[in-house]
Amino acid sequence: MSPDTLGAAAAGKRWNGPAVRRVAAWLLRQLAWRGGLCLAAAFTAYALASLSFDPLAELRGQQPRPPQAVIDAQARRLGLDTPLPRRFVEWLAGLPRGDFGETVGGRPVADELWRRCGTSLRLFLAGSLLAIVLGVSAGLWNALRSGRASDQFFLVGSLVLLSVPVFVLGTVLKMVWLPVNEAFGTQLLYFSGETTPGSDHTGWAAAGDRLRHLALPTLAIALPQAAFYSRYQRAAMLDVLGSDFLRAARAKGLRRGQAVLRHGVRLALMPMVALFAFTFGLHLTGGVFTERIFGWSGMGDWLLHGIQAQDATIVASVTLFIAVLVVLAGLLADAVQVLLDPRVRGVERR
Amino acid sequence: MRSDAEQPDPEQPGAKQTSAQQPSTEQPGAAESDAVTTDAVRGVAAGSDAAEEPALLEVAGLSVTFTGDRRTRRPDLRAVREVNLTLRRGECLAMVGESGSGKSVTASALIGLVPGRAEVRGSVRLAGRELLGLDDREMSRVRGDRIGMVFQDPLAALLPVTSVGRQIAEAVRVHRRVSRAAALRRAVDLLDQVGIPDAARRARAFPYEFSGGMRQRVAIAVAIAGDPDLLIADEPTSALDTTVQAGVLNLLEALRKDRGCSLLLITHDLGVVARSCDRVAVMRDGRITEEGGVLPLLGAAVPAGHLGELLAATRDEERAAPAAPSAAGAPVLRVAGLRRHYRARQRLGRAAPPVRAVDGVSFTVLAGQSLALLGESGCGKTTTLHEILRLAAPQSGRIDVLGHDLSRLTPRDRRELRRQVQVVFQDPAASLDPRMRVGDIIAEPLDIQRASAAHRATRVEELLTMVELPPGTERLRPGLLSGGQRQRVAIARALATKPRLVLLDEPVSALDASLRVGMMRLLDNLRATMGLSYLLVSHDIQLVRRSADQVAVLYLGKVVEHGPAWSVLENPQHPYTRALVDASPTTDPARERSRERVVLLGDPHATPGVGCAFRPRCPLFPVSDEATRGSCVTSEPELRQTHPEKRQFAACHSRQLKTIIDAY
Amino acid sequence: MTAEPSAALPARAGDVRRDSLALRMLRDPMAVVGALLLALLVGLAVLGPWLWPYDHTTQRPEAMLAEPSAKHWLGTARLGEDVLAQCVRGLQKSLVIGVLVAVISTALATAVGLAAGYFGKRADRALMWGVDMLLILPSFLVVAVISPTLRDRSWLYMVLVIALFQWTLTARVIRARTLSLRGRQFVGAARYMGAGAGWIVRKHLVPHLVPLLVIDCTLHVSAAILSEAGLSYFGFGIQAPDVSLGSLVADGSGSALTYPWVFLAPVGFLVVTVTGVGLLGEALRRALDEGEAHAV
To answer: Least CB-CB distance to A48: which of C145, C230, C274?
Structure first.
């Protein structure tokens, strides 16, 4: 046994040249497949919106009715005289330049897009992260104590929580928190908006102000998601607890707790990674509702506004944004899975 | 992902470990007299040295009861009842019994890892120290350090996501305060000791990258990492091919001798017991029925008790006269130059050479005859079977069934042939739809062929009688039947359309030994009375010897030897056939321990590409002369008649086969 | 010795599984509570209109936003409508929509999942691409976008559209299950007997999928009720003068802090309905899992 081979064994050099190339090829194929999905989703949304919306209705409905020439001009400006696929392609062509088209009102979509993007991501990622932490720990805890009263309580509790629509949950959270705010005589946590309008906080004070706005909507997003994850995590952990792996780990001399923590949790988390990605899109809808309830001007709020304003460009832009998010989540999940599970990785080192 | 059914918690909260420490110390006499019927036998085995050294392991009155569930109306199950055992240092004790006899549960109870909710009573003492009733912290110091455990299925026991080196290192570090690097060094050392070539590099590999035999060696390395006094091996070779089994058993034997540890070997294979164990304990329905030295018990002319029953089944097979040659008619099945290559699956875009599952196989089954395809897993025997069953043009080569070339079948011919060609699979639990009733299962081929209702009813009744199942069985679902009964259902289904050719895919290897003989006898009788032809796919020498007229031995997709079954198995002319025959153990301890055998090195699936595919494992290759070795490397051997007067053919370059094997 | 004790057949020859499914459910408190809740709600939805003198449109200007009383058990709304009558009307809508969507989307998912899983290859790729795209596209968005078109048509169109965007996850699960079933040996055995795709689907695949379908069907009922409520809440679903639990919640949420009953009553109905369905589904899953364990 030379020290060299041992060193190599310990370091575990995993990624050699061909492996990198293979991973690159895999990544490219994934991007092609998923990029196609994104475009198809955006097109579907654009087409449906264009066919269903009538952006000229408002103009026509004005009293007195504007001259036909004005209406025609507006139609031309919106491109309603060109066929739908061409309009979509033109919109697409602008994307690489950062041009997302114009709203019905004539303002560039891109201006608002990036601001709202940040707002939404901040809220949704904070909520999802909290949900994953809460859901996974509750699921693991309940699996370890399955059959006990606390497990039953959580099971029914998660069912009830999943039965509460997000828009109700937001309002209920406000109702519950109102007495607390009143008791403190001040707005401890805010009910609406991202920051206090007109406040001139800086530094820590500003961050604190943001946090106090963030708390309730984050909770509204996180709770149902956490309930959802906890049920699946519990099932996955129960599977692992019944498996031979843990028995074998304990036969080595690991204590029950050690075996569960070192091996069980890791194995039980693997199926969850796929689930996170899989249901990411579903949970985004909850984010849309939450923004409205708490008066955050994010993408979801904008989408609702776009539908009410009969604006196909906004709808398509938001859809593309959501699609890209879902697809990125899926890609991230695959990558994490490859890291967690060598069987997926399948890089041979014989 | 979907089911979060109530699963019993492995340990808490139901598992009470009630210990009764007293019986063996306070009233040893009572415990002894309780200990079944075998004091006399034990005296013979233990001899005089028993008194000098205290036993390493003393088990007294051990009982395990799985707690039932009132809500689902599952009753309590008494899996182990009042078991007494002793094991001295350096000794090898075998526990044998049929499936469900409680031997595995006993082993789990010894290390305090009974799965599910169970109550464990009695006393387990290791070197005088009571183990039952220890808490998890104390027991975990015993597990792995004093007692090592090898499980039946290494794939289920080794963590899939961690390299084997780190898994072994973990086992080292649980009990010894050593650095990570030192533990890893020790892991490489252990891998080397269990016979993993190139251990330093392989330590970084993951379990899925090892073959079955190598995986079990890794599991053994984990078990001995703590240098235990007692090694418990639960069916360590049952999932392995016979030629690989021998290597693993040899390894366990060598480890026991080198380290002076005791071995508790749990097995259902009496051949394994005859070969390497000192004493044997026989279990049935959770009790030990006989216990004693292997030589006196297994060597007895007429073994008594349950052991006698177990042995009778196996010996019947061993001693059965080779099948009397059946009257042969016209060819029913003719396979010529059959090839089936698979494109290997790509992982992360990496291309791999095609897998040559079947690579030029030819044989003929005559009417009324039985031909066996013999070989280990991965040799292509099952692929061949499925190629025939598809009744479609093969990738390459030609298959004729009842005179029809499969590549030129009209749909109408194919429908007719489906009626004539039927199959019985290995595991009836898998091949019978658990949601259908037995009657519907048996009648399914008739239903597919749209038989009339009246015909269907009488035929089902007939078939049940034919396979010796009582009337009324047709109303049950297969889940309520025993393994043997299920396989009878599968046979009845295969016979429903009155076929002429039946393909049998390991038809008895999922059954307990005592049932095998009955099942094969049934199959033999059916063949004779109904004029069937069998294509029997098996790895089991005894079975082939008993029931086949002809045999074709397959290795890596090629026929390496074929001829009359008795001739090939009594007088193998290919080193691989010889190794297969040698690897099949007999239950006579005296014979088993004295006989010479050809043991193969390495694992199957290592194809060199050109030349003889068997070369890497061939025991003759290293000892052959220069010229022979040259042809082994460069050219693929053809099947040649081994003796001018015999219809036996072997594909080997070595000309002095017989003499070299004997010298070896 | 050689002949096994073939006479030892199990005593209970009857249909052990089906008999005990009902029994197992009865022994599970979750199932009992869920079933009772649902029975109560369905009874209310069916009989409700005969129990009160008001329907959801009756306005009593003399009693606007009145607190719950003997006359109006759950108080009145802004224009003096009886909240209970409104809720029962919404409940009817929710239940009908939930069941219809569940049936349609489960059927669609079964068809697509089976086709993709059984026939594989190109059909599989095409179908799964479609499924993936629908998974990316939030159903809420699509329904909301085309809601102006639906506004003047029957609410049944809304049922169709909700169903169209709800089947995808189930289809994926059914596809995965079909793939694994297709690999099971009894399916291979049937194929070697000469069974065609239709036979195998009918006799071997569907019976094995039934437990999954039943469980998923209950999930779809819950999801559809919540979808409809969400759409109506934002004004994309059921339109005035008709009401739905979602639109009632929307009307009430503005005054949730001042006149809580206007908000809490429809919320209560919504949550209890969905929880009831959820409890029943959960209990069904447990009972079927146990049945599975017994069968094998």
So the answer is: C145
